[in-house]
Design brief:
The structure is a single chain. About 30% of the residues lie in helices and about 25% in strands. It has five helices and eight strands. The strands form two sheets. It has a five-stranded antiparallel beta sheet with strand order 4-3-2-1-8, sandwiched between helices. Strands 5-6-7 form a three-stranded antiparallel beta sheet, covered by helices on one side. The radius of gyration is 20 Å and the shape is globular. The mean pLDDT is about 80. This is Protein HdcB.
Amino acid sequence: MSNSNYQVSLERIKKVVPEELLTNALLAAIDNSGERMSQIIVDKKDNGNDYYLTIHRFFVYSNEEFTAFDKEDVADVEFVNGTPDGEVIITLKDGKVLHPSHICYGRAFDFIQDVKPKVITMAGYDSTIRGEFPQLLDPDHAEEIDRLRRWMQDGNISHYEYDDANPAYPKAGK
């Protein structure tokens, strides 16, 4: 267990989940994923616990199996209630439903906010006031700006990289 993503994941997970629930098999699966986990929820089952983790994809660890899902495969999410005894419903595009119904640790609402489908809003910048920035002169840039905003919100680029790549911001003095 050596990669830096694992260390960051472990620190985040230990803030939420008691150490006695962190099995060696779970920790090894997180380490082998190579991902830096940001959210975790623990669903209490009769035969053990299911662990739902997320960052760029989301993962389910159940019965010593670690399954990865792409966030693009999520059709819908529903928040029923928070912990203790929390419940969320995640519906995938293939019709499969993940339904942790006894969430005992983690922030259920934050988890589904990270997993829920995000749609590019196709912002329109054609009615901006003259002389104000950010202002787009070409409405075709709206989709690119939304894509940049999503990349920044998902943590793929920094705020500075967003500003540099945003065609609406003036670049004088850079």
